[in-house]
Amino acid sequence: CLDAVHPSYLTNGQPSVERFPISFKTHFSGNYFHHVVLGIYCNGRYGSLGMSRRSDLMDKPLTYRTLSDLIFDFEDSYKKYLHSVKKVKIGLYVPHEPHSFQPIEWKQLVLNVSKMMRTEVRKELEKFARDMRMKILKPSSAHSPMKERPRGKSLSPRRRQGSPQRRACRRDKS
Fold first, then answer.
1. What is the DSSP letter of 105?
2. Considering only CA atoms, which of 51, 119, 112 is closest in space to residue 84?
3. Cβ–Cβ under 8 Å, residues 7 and 14
4. What is the model's pTM?
5. Contact 113, 74 (CB under 8 A)
6. Staple 47 to which of 62, 110, 151, 171, CB 3.0 to 4.6 Å?
7. What is the sign, positive or negative, of the torsion defined by CA atoms of 138, 100, 48, 46?
8. Which segment of 26-35, 50-59, 61-70, 82-91 scores lowest on mean pLDDT?
9. Active-site residue identified among 1, 84, 100, 140
């Protein structure tokens, strides 16, 4: 996870650069591997920052016109190392406030790419990317603000007059 969080601090002072986590689950030689990079969106182009022993599995320049082009480039890079991509998870934009308590949304979109056609993956990624650019998506961990209530008041709805009353005692079923 440090792979994606550390570069986000480096880009914190650049509000024109939107950052979001991208994670990959791959399979190789009977084992599963997980890798996280920081997706970057700036001036209509996508790229990434990250750490890896393989140069083509970390930093990608801001040259990709679509999010799916970026993801497919990662998938092609994994194939070079005989890894098959099983899942791709994409989170929401990381806030730019350095002291924000908003948790990072790591997996807003989860695609089981091993069971999907490439056209389906492209369609899902582009819909998600469009919603992200329009900032329609909200964190799933975000809750509506709590309303204060006067002391002694119940949160449960009041029973209507026509509702049947509960029995005063329950029968012992033993």
1. -
2. 112
3. no
4. 0.71
5. no
6. 62
7. positive
8. 50-59
9. 1
Active site residue 42: no
In the residue annotation, 35 being an active-site residue is answered as: yes
Sign of the four-CA dihedral 33, 34, 35, 40: positive
Catalytic residue from among 35, 48, 77, 83:
35
Burial of 93 (0-12, 13-18, 19+ CB in 10 A): buried
Q: Which band of pLDDT confidence, cut at 50, 70 and 90, is reported for residue 9? A: very low
Q: 96: buried, middle or exposed (CB in 10 Å: 19+, 13-18, 0-12)? A: middle
Q: Is 68 a catalytic residue?
A: no
Which of 6, 52, 140, 141 is flagged as catalytic?
52
Distance CA 115, CA 122 (A): 13
CA geometry: angle 167, 169, 173, nearest 5 deg? 110
Structure tokens of 61? 């320049």
User: Residue 90 corresponds to which amino acid?
Assistant: I
